[in-house]
Write a structure and sequence with these properties.
The protein has a 6-stranded parallel beta sheet, covered by helices on one side. It contains 12 helices and 12 strands. It is α/β, with parallel strands linked by helices and 335 residues long. It is globular, with a radius of gyration of 21 Å. It has 2 domains: 152 residues, Rossmann fold (3-Layer(aba) Sandwich); 167 residues, Rossmann fold (3-Layer(aba) Sandwich). Helix 1 packs across helix 12. Strand 5, helix 5 and strand 6 form a beta-alpha-beta unit. This is Lipopolysaccharide biosynthesis protein.
């Protein structure tokens, strides 16, 4: 069965980014793009079992879902499939795809490191092109390097002339983030900074487990934790009233986060624990302050000096439009 030229996006649902990617793909392709969630459901246990590889616990549910994806591919005869951050997949799944549509071009994009998602390693031979946001993984595995991006909404934020918030953190609380947030809070109290925090945890089960088992969650009674993420409109509202955004990378990741590019794309300053940013052309000390996780110091002058605008040829290549353009320019390699 030959391909018919259609495009399929398969990815987890992730704070609405999959919708923005789909819209931009359709804009550039000037055609409809189909979407399939990589997970059969987005409840806590389904996400957990798929992430850690315990798919045997929901084997029937996953098989039904993946059979549905295969059937959609068989009917639509897609010529290109973009798969982002796979979970719960097997080599058999890819064999079925290639059986129903021989010659299909399957592209992989990883916005997690291999160290953080080791279960993807046995699947790598199934892809015609592999991109990663992690430079180290690209060097080790021969992937093509493609950083993350800022979506179109962030370059249209109407900034307030006198923002009330000095530093803002909006994000999921995981790994060492809580420890860093405590230290930034202490520095803010000491230096009289206004520090806005929206601490998101996926659900109360994770919160209880961390309260019991994670030493970083000791003595956190002064913090408010939220089980619902902010909408993009709510995030934009905070950004508009903020001088600098705090970014704390995952302990097992070296690549720059989405928050990094959203912040700089919106014309805000960035305070980050990820020292790897100094190797990127987006790094400039006027806009980016790298802090030590163990010894947090924030220079007031950094917050009180103006943001230095980037040349369009630098900031533009980290836009969603540029990211999608790179994906669409992929050439098949021999498997």
């Amino acid at each position: 069965m030959k391909c018919n030229g259609g495009f399929l996006l398969i990815s987890p649902k992730f704070f609405g980014y999959e919708k923005e990617i789909k819209i931009e793909l359709e804009r550039q392709l000037k055609a409809d793009v189909s979407y399939c969630d990589i997970r059969p459901k987005n409840d806590f246990f389904t996400k957990l079992f798929m992430r850690i590889g315990a798919t045997f616990l929901i084997k029937k549910r996953i098989k039904q879902h993946q059979d549905g994806i295969i059937e959609k591919i068989r009917q639509e005869k897609f010529s290109t499939i973009l798969l982002i951050n796979p979970e719960g997949l097997s080599n058999e799944f890819f064999k079925k795809i290639k059986d129903v549509v021989p010659g299909v071009n399957i592209i992989l994009y990883l916005w997690d490191s291999i160290e953080n998602k080791p279960l993807v390693k046995p699947l790598l031979s199934n892809f015609s092109q592999i991109y990663s946001f992690d430079k180290n993984d690209c060097q080790q595995y021969g992937f093509d390097f493609l950083p993350l991006f800022f979506s179109n909404s962030y370059d249209k934020i109407a900034r307030l002339t006198t923002p009330k918030i000095d530093i803002a953190f909006i994000g999921t609380v995981h790994s060492q983030r809580m420890n860093v947030i405590k230290k930034v809070e202490a520095a803010s109290v000491r230096d009289n900074f206004v520090f806005y925090k929206y601490l998101y945890i996926q659900n109360w089960i994770i919160f209880v487990v961390r309260k019991i088992a994670d030493k970083n969650f000791k003595n956190v009674s002064q913090f408010t934790f939220n089980f619902t993420p902010l909408t993009s409109q709510e995030i934009n509202s905070v950004y508009a009233d903020t001088k600098a955004i705090l970014d704390i990378e995952h302990d097992k990741q070296k690549g720059l986060t989405m928050r990094t590019f959203e912040t700089l794309g919106a014309g805000l300053k960035l305070i980050t624990t990820n020292k790897n940013i100094i190797d990127y052309d987006i790094y400039t000390p006027e806009n980016v302050l790298v802090i030590d996780k163990d010894n947090v110091h924030i220079d007031p002058e950094f917050l009180n000096t103006p943001f230095k605008d980037y040349p369009e040829d630098i900031i533009g290549k980290y836009s969603l439009s540029s990211w999608v353009s790179t994906i669409l320019s992929s050439q098949k390699r021999d498997l």
